[in-house]
Amino acid sequence: MNTLVDTQGQEFIDCLGGFGIFNVGHRNPVVVSAVQNQLAKQPLHSQELLDPLRAMLAKTLAALTPGKLKYSFFCNSGTESVEAALKLAKAYQSPRGKFTFIATSGAFHGKSLGALSATAKSTFRRPFMPLLPGFRHVPFGNIDAMSMAFSEGKKTGDEIAAVILEPIQGEGGVILPPQGYLTEVRKLCDEFGALMILDEVQTGMGRTGKMFACEHENVQPDILCLAKALGGGVMPIGATIATEEVFSVLFDNPFLHTTTFGGNPLACAAALATINVLLEQNLPAQAEQKGDTLLDGFRQLAREYPNLVHDARGKGMLMAIEFVDNETGYRFASEMFRQRVLVAGTLNNAKTIRIEPPLTLTIELCEQVLKSARNALAAMQVSVEEV
Q1: CA distance 344 to 23
Q2: pLDDT per position as a tens digit, 21-65
Q3: In the predicted model, what is the mean pLDDT of residues 63-78?
Q4: Which of 86, 147, 252, 325 is buried most, with the most CB atoms less than 10 Å from its CB?
Q5: For the chain, how long is the longest CA-to-CA vector?
Q6: What radius of gyration, in Å, describes the C-alpha atoms of the chain?
Q7: How many other β-carbons are positioned within 10 Å of the β-carbon of residue 150?
Q8: CATH topology for the 29-280 domain
Q9: Closest CA to 199 of 175, 174, 170, 179
Q10: Every domain of the chain and the residues it spans
Q11: In contact, 191 and 159? CB cutoff 8 Å
């Protein structure tokens, strides 16, 4: 469940994890069985009829997510989840005269038009300019810059509707904000009457050592975005979970935002099975323990190869090794492939190699990954010395 086999029979340890979808491993038998059983009953649903699995998943997420998060909108991907969050925030705040969103530098929220407007990489944005108006970007982790954006909006009459951010920036290079940052952002949102949208598409479902990364600071968002690992690596599914107060803007007309395949029986069956596996095997706690082992090893390698490795960082099983430049990062990924370990750079930061294995990765495989990383760096060091 933690490895892949190519067409020639070579086995590779997966430290890509589908960029966060394989939290419960590849082909998890519990998830696969749930989908197969549902496939024999009713693969897709009729929008005009009640679907018990969708209701069960919504109720489960209401119990699982922090704070007053209660109602779910189901979709098929992370970017769809973000789009729903932005539209919910707009519908809630527009009558209050608040139209502007704050996002952060280095953010990645998806590539559909609304999500792309919150994303912060010019490569993805420029071909589609102009994007949606009303988005400001401030430095991630800088609470003073966030506070200033709120204050300026208040002074100019361009008040903030919502803040959207990742608890840990994934595609930005696994960037962790200072401790307490999310707490301070929550306070600003409360002070200025803004909504807090947390994009946990990559950090959610146990990845960082808690079921949701915001739980490390006991922060409760108004809207939470999930996808990737929610489907157990078997089915695509996304979810946008909001408080009753926010979600109530759809009560009078739930057809304001819909999707044909969102919350289909196969996807809901996969999600329910995935949650059961995460809880029964206590995978968030395993992610914390194994992540500590891996990160300690990567930091030791960073100390041994300072001319190659700039930093090693992470939380739980979401880690990154940052190299001195892009070329060195590419070389490391190539050397790891020779060692039969799959890794890759992040979308917004090519010199940063992401380490995002399944949470089910065994201790033995963790040790093998560290051994392979040491071998890769040693080979790279020899090449540097020969030049």
Answers
A1: 17
A2: 999 999 999 999 999 999 999 899 877 777 899 999 999 999 999
A3: 98
A4: 86
A5: 70
A6: 21
A7: 20
A8: Aspartate Aminotransferase; domain 2 (3.40.640)
A9: 170
A10: 3-24+282-386, 29-280
A11: no
- pTM of this structure: 0.96
Closest alpha carbon to 20 in 280, 311, 347, 279: 347
Q: What is the pLDDT of residues 254-307, one digit of tens each?
A: 999 999 999 999 999 999 999 999 999 999 999 999 999 999 999 999 999 999
pLDDT above 90 covers a percentage of the chain that reads 94
- What pLDDT is stored for residue 46 in this prediction? 76
The confidence score (pLDDT) of residue 387 equals: 54
**Average pLDDT, integer, range 87-99:** 98
Q: Does domain 3-24+282-386 have CATH number 3.40.50.2000?
A: no
Sign for the CA dihedral angle at 264, 265, 269, 275 comes to: positive
- Residue 293: how many other CB atoms lie within 10 Å: 14
Distance, in Å, from the CA atom of 207 to the CA atom of 192, rounded to the nearest integer, reads 31
